[in-house]
Amino acid sequence: MAPEALIQTACYVALALLGAAFFLTVYRVIKGPTLPDRVVGLDMLVGIALGFIAVIAIRTGYTLYIDIAISLGLVGFLATVAFARFIITRGTREAAEGQSDTPRKPPAGAKAGRKSR
Known about the structure:
77% of the residues lie in helices and 0% in strands. It has 117 residues and is mainly α.
């Protein structure tokens, strides 16, 4: 098998695997039960996009795609850090609101003045 044919076959296999990973990750981003799951999914989408760009750069031989991939990696990293800071501040704010001095209302089904056993 000639090296060009081997590289072309490897590119097709890589594109197929990246496509499958893309659809599975999009499913996780949409269905993710929590916000951190969705953030990790979005970070994974950036990684998959980097893989797509790298495979296209290999297939075309156009080296500008590598620079684009590096830029996308940097933007993806900064977006992940920003999302992480958002999640941390949101969790801190919710914890502070939960520890306030104001008494909480009893649940709707609870009767006032009675202690449950």
